């Protein structure tokens, strides 16, 4: 479970990319462009292959062709090896996962999560204890996020509605959005933002230290660009998983961007049903925070 | 500050509007066969749509969408090339195997 989680992290971070595509990924185009230009010239060459006279026209790119061909051949055999090894590895991992499926329900879970203390979208100090007794679906993002966070939060809302509509389960999940951009995401920003997605969604912000601590506990990476002038807008690079946490606050599962709402709903339901089948108790009341009662 | 504190992040409708003008601009670039919105050849095409896009989306979003448009296409092409190579290598291996068996 832990291994597969780490693999997901390691694999999908650069490929599927966090909310803003990591600016560092922009380094990719250079070699790609070199190959692209080759490809164009190669196309001209190969279509004229049978025509000896016209093949001359491609000779300008000859050196490039040779070099690139060598690279291609090397890459090709490397890839073949890689694909074969990868296939073996995936098959072995799948068998291993099936074997561990039962056990992983009870032990071998990664240590993700932990206590936190943040400010909710009403400006009330809120801790992990306020959410105990119910499942939590948690997402880390930021309100200025261009498209991935809002899409993921819409997906989360869909999952919630699906699970809530199941008569055997009911409303047992508290959805939580935690900002990784506490500098811009004030209580007012978060308040306005969560309303866009789901009536139950709780938005949390805090100081940079508080947010840093919770992100670390949930193994969430986030990074604000180093040089941002005052008033200039920016994007925060961050991991984009959402987490399902058990009523005791322990980690249950995490879902990536390529998981559909149907897949996540099904998986969440199965986890909750398994917990209920073991005699687990879950509160159907939305959390009424003690701190909130005190201020009222 | 009263209840109506100023909120700076784009609302749901502002986001949707930004995605719409972005998609319209990118579709126009596609029609003009321009991939990179920052390339010199992009300067002379789809100017109205470009203005709508740049006015309708935050600056950081424009930068991000522009970069992603190029990266997505390049990643797709890279993947296609990798697949084609993989297939070619497999075919050659099969050919050699068949030859070896025939001999």
Automatic annotation (TrEMBL), chain A:
Molecular-function GO terms, alphabetical: copper ion binding
* Key words, A-Z: Copper, Disulfide bond, Metal-binding
Alphabetized InterPro entries for the sequence: SCO1/SenC, Thioredoxin-like_sf
One GO location term (cellular component): mitochondrion
State the coiled-coil residue ranges: none
Query: Could you give a single Gene Ontology term from the biological process aspect?
Result: mitochondrial respiratory chain complex IV assembly
Q: Which residues bind Cu cation per the record? A: 145, 149, 238
Give TM segment ranges. Answer: none
The cysteines joined by S-S bonds are 145-149
Record family assignment:
Belongs to the SCO1/2 family.
Protein name stated in the entry: Cu-binding protein
Which species expresses this protein natively? Answer: Mortierella alpina (Oleaginous fungus)
> What's the gene?
SCO1
UniProtKB/TrEMBL annotation, chain B:
Question: Which Pfam families would you find in this protein's record?
Answer: COX6B (PF02297)
Q: Subcellular location, in the record's words?
A: Mitochondrion
Question: What are the coiled-coil residue ranges?
Answer: 72-99
Identify the PROSITE patterns for this entry.
CHCH
Gene Ontology CC:
mitochondrion
Q: Does the keyword Coiled coil apply?
A: yes
Q: Which domain of life is it from?
A: Eukaryota
Tell me where the signal peptide lies. none
Q: Which InterPro entries match?
A: COA6_fun, COX6B-like, CX6/COA6-like_sf
What UniProt keywords are attached to this protein's entry? Coiled coil, Disulfide bond, Mitochondrion
Q: What family name appears in the similarity comment?
A: Belongs to the cytochrome c oxidase subunit 6B family.
Q: What is this protein called?
A: Cytochrome c oxidase assembly factor 6
């Amino acid at each position: 479970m832990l291994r597969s989680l780490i693999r997901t992290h390691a694999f999908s971070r650069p490929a599927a990319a966090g909310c803003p595509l990591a600016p560092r990924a922009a380094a990719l185009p250079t070699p790609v462009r070199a190959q692209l230009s080759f490809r164009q010239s190669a196309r001209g060459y190969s279509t004229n292959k049978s025509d000896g006279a016209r093949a001359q026209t491609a000779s300008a790119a000859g050196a490039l062709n040779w070099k690139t061909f060598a690279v291609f051949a090397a890459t090709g055999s490397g890839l073949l090896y890689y694909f074969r090894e990868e296939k073996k590895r995936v098959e072995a991992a799948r068998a291993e996962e099936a074997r561990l499926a039962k056990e992983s329900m009870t032990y071998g879970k990664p240590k993700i999560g932990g206590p936190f203390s943040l400010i909710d979208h009403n400006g009330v100090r809120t801790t992990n204890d306020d959410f105990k007794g119910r499942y939590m679906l948690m997402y880390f993002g930021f309100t200025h996020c261009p498209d991935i966070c809002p899409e993921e939060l819409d997906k989360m809302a869909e999952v919630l509605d699906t699970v809530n509509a199941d008569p055997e389960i009911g409303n047992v999940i508290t959805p939580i959005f935690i900002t990784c951009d506490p500098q811009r995401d004030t209580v007012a920003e978060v308040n306005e933002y969560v309303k866009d997605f789901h009536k139950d969604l709780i938005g949390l912000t805090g100081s940079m230290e508080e947010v840093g601590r919770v992100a670390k506990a949930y193994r969430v990476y986030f990074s604000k660009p180093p040089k941002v002038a005052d008033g200039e807008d920016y994007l925060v690079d961050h991991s984009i998983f959402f987490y399902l946490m058990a009523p005791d606050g322990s980690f249950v599962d995490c879902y990536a961007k390529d998981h559909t709402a149907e897949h996540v709903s099904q998986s969440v339901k199965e986890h909750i049903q398994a917990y209920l089948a073991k005699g687990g108790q879950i509160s159907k009341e939305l959390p009424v925070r003690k701190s909130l009662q005190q201020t009222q | 500050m009263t209840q109506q504190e100023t909120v700076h992040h784009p609302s749901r409708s502002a986001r949707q509007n930004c995605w719409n003008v972005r998609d319209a601009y990118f579709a126009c670039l596609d029609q003009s066969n321009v991939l990179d919105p920052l390339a010199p050849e992009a300067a002379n095409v789809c100017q109205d749509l470009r203005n709508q896009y740049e006015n309708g989306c935050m600056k950081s979003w424009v930068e991000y969408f522009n970069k992603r448009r190029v990266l997505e296409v390049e990643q797709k092409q890279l993947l296609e090339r990798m697949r084609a190579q993989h297939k070619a290598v497999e075919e050659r291996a099969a050919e050699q195997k068949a030859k070896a068996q025939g001999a």
